Amino acid sequence: MSLSLVSRTALTAALGWGVMSGAAAAQSVAGPQEPATALDDVIVTGAPYGISARATTIATTVIDEEALATAPAASLGDLVAGLPGMRSTDFAPGASRPVIRGLSGPRVQVLTNGIGLIDASSVSPDHQVATDPAEANRIEIVRGPATLAYGGTAIGGVVNVLDNRIPTEMPDGVDGLVSAQTSTVDQGWSTSARATFGLGPIAISIDGVKKEADDYDIPSPAISQRLADAEGIARGPGGTQPNSFSELESWGVGASWIGARGFIGAAYKDLSSTYGTVAEPDVFIQLEQTREDARGELRFDGGPFQKLTGSYGHADYTHTEFEGPGNPGTIFQSDGQEARADLVQRTRNGWNGAVGVQALSRTFEAIGAEAFLPASDIEEAGVYTVQRLDRAGWGLEGGLRYDRRTVTATPLSGGSEIERDFGNWSGSVAAFIKPTTTLFLGLSLAHNERAPSEVELFADGLHIATGVYETGDPTLDNETVTTLEGTVHYSAGRFQGDLHVYASKYDGFIDERDTGAVFVDGGESFPIFQFVQTGAEFRGFEAEGEYALWTRGDRSLSLEGAVDFVDAQTDQGPAARIPPWSATARLAWSSTPFDAALEVRRVGEQDELAAYELGTDGYTMVNLSGVWRPFADKGVTLFAEGHNLTDEEAREHVSFLKDVAPLPGRNLRVGVAYRF
Question: What is the per-residue pLDDT for 5?
Fold first, then answer.
């Protein structure tokens, strides 16, 4: 079956039946036969039929609308950094992508409403994710390879940014949120607003985000002491981080026709951004993306299936790297479309599941004298199923997926066009028991395959924004990984907690390594990085818990904690840019009018290093935050945060720029949000 046929089939499934049915109902993530569960505890990213986060072997984290309303005006990577198992590439405030269990780039799939962003953020760490957290009303994170619904590019995990641009239910009057905040560390400010309202059977949504920030303050010289000692250079004066400014503007509009048995809708979004790369003092990036989406759902009255859902997205993306004002350098362009359709089974005797198809077609091109990638065409198609059996004291989970990926390009070094075809099988099986109503124990085994990306295959040139010469290998084979993971959920009395312990064994792990050689251009030297394939083993865990120290009425004082650790070894030694352990403790007060939290976060030293990699010192962050709801209806929220109160020098080991760009210094952030 050709990709174009798959794409048309999925789009027809998403749209055609919605028109014929003339209907749409409020979307129910759990389905009508699921046990009653709080909405915030139900995730849809790990399984299309929706499942309680505390009743599955899948490792998940959810950032809900209330938390997002008072969250920092940060990029997606920086927002999720510090959650269990999560870090940020921390390339610059404008370009930070999520890192999950030490994995990043093409192994971590960033989605918007279950569809890929079709941007260039996985091509290089200096490329911005083409979505902003302020657009979202919910962010779901799946850690690890239990992501069969999204294919091999999600071998490390998924971050799914969910918005309401295509409404799924009719609002009661006008439903919306307005938020504004400012911060001292970068003289930054941010505003966002969204509203949904009904016109007969049609629900209309509008939203917008605008934010700006100057170069941020740093508590130490930009150059680390380790790099200064290794290179015999001066550390410099410090004060502010050069070329770390960022600006972003995004707006969107969408509408849905909502009836009794389904919905059908479409949306348009425009995003533009300008930000400094930090790596080079005069290099900055301008990004533009326009995007059109369509989504729908049809619910069935009877039969083996509960509903049919479909999604389609098309995006046109341009990213220009300027080497000084008015001097454009490399231009990256990506144009593509993705579609998916899912048939969700009706729950019967504790058994539910889904089958789905997914297709992607994308063209990618880098233009300019310093383009390090050839133009390439990417075609993908996949089919999958996920299933779950849940009985009173035990259950099973599992799934199977097959993907076909074709990458076509002409190498920059010359020669004939190369076409690489990859077929990937992925599968998982899990069993769990519930000895008591308070305890859940699970064990899962997953085998996943990932085709190499166009960068890993065909990179060959100096990438000015990252300051390295990147070299791919067009002979790379599939990357495969087998993961064993144990899960514990416990909730009783004053305590609740979660534990995930995992071990992953890779065959053909694709790693970008510093070769030790240098490329000289215009008298300036740049390290040469090579993509190589090797065996690897990743081991680690994430643990989090909460204990209620005191409660009375609506008031409570809790002690919260989280710890994570990952160790990654390859046949060539430690894997590069693996985060060290971290531990976080929070003392949290909660009440109807006022919440407050004191947080202490310790990140360890990293001395398990790849060749030519410098170590990173540990650090301790102290943060204080508060939220005040002055009115009884809680529509207005005032919030404030003091971050890095001790002005600690901190560097993110997974970042390419860790030795030239520390994390921001002491910051006071204040804001207001109005929910209506």
Answer: 36
Phi, psi of 165 (to 5 degrees): -65, -35
For 7, the token pair is: 């794409």
In this structure, what token pair is assigned to residue 570?
């390859």
Joined together, the tokens standing for residue 54 give: 């505390």
Residue indicated by tokens 């600006």: 247
Q: How far apart are CA 132 and CA 125, in angstroms?
A: 16
> What kind and span of H or E run contains 67?
helix 65-69
CA distances from residue 105 to 241, 247, 345, 653 in whole angstroms, order as listed = 25, 23, 33, 15
User: CA-to-CA distance for 457 and 422, rounded, in angstroms?
Assistant: 12
- Pick from 36, 43, 38: which is nearest to 61 by CA? 43
Sign of the four-CA dihedral 225, 226, 227, 232: positive
Q: Is the Cα dihedral 153, 581, 277, 466 positive or negative? A: negative
Residues in the chain: 676
End-to-end CA distance of the chain: 48
pLDDT band at 7 (very low <50, low <70, confident <90, very high): very low
Quick one: pLDDT at residue 18?
A: 34
Question: What pLDDT band is residue 441 in, cutting at 50, 70 and 90?
Answer: very high
Two tokens, residue 240: 């502010």
CA distance 22 to 4: 27
b/e for 141-172, b at 16 or more Cβ within 10 A? bbbbbbbbbbbbbbbbbbbbbbbbbbbbbbbe
Q: How many whole angstroms separate alpha carbon 170 and alpha carbon 152?
A: 36
Q: Could you say which DSSP state residue 78 is in?
A: H
Cβ atoms of residues 124 and 455 within 8 Å: yes
Q: What is the CA radius of gyration of the chain?
A: 24
Instruction: For 436-503, give the secondary structure using H, E and C.
Output: ECCEEEEEEEEEEEECCCHHHHHCEEEECCCCEEEECCCCCCCEEEEEEEEEEEEEECCEEEEEEEEE
Which helix (H) or strand (E) segment holds residue 257: the answer is strand 246-258
Could you give the angle at the alpha carbon of 223 between the alpha carbons of 222 and 227, nearest 5°?
Answer: 160
CA distance 573 to 569: 6
Per-position DSSP letters for 381-417, written without gaps between them: EEEEEEEEEE-SSEEEEEEEEEEEEEEEE--TT-SS-
Which DSSP symbol is given to 593? S
Nearest to 347 by CA among 387, 317, 313: 387
565-585 exposure pattern, b = at least 16 Cβ within 10 A, e = fewer: bbbbebebebbbbbbbbbbbe
Residue type, 404: R
User: One-letter amino acid identity for 412?
Assistant: L
**Residue range 94-113: mean pLDDT, rounded:** 92
Tokens of 289: 């993306």
Closest by CA position to 540, among listed 573, 564, 562, 571: 564
pLDDT tens digits for 113-165?
A: 999 998 888 887 888 899 999 999 999 999 987 678 887 778 899 999 999 99
Q: Which residues pair with 183 in a beta bridge?
A: 188, 669
Tell me how far apart the alpha carbons of residues 89 and 472 are, in angstroms, rounded to a whole number.
Answer: 21
What is the C-alpha separation between 87 and 76, in angstroms, rounded? 11
pLDDT, tens digit (0-9, with 9 covering 90-100), for 318-341: 989 888 777 888 888 999 999 999
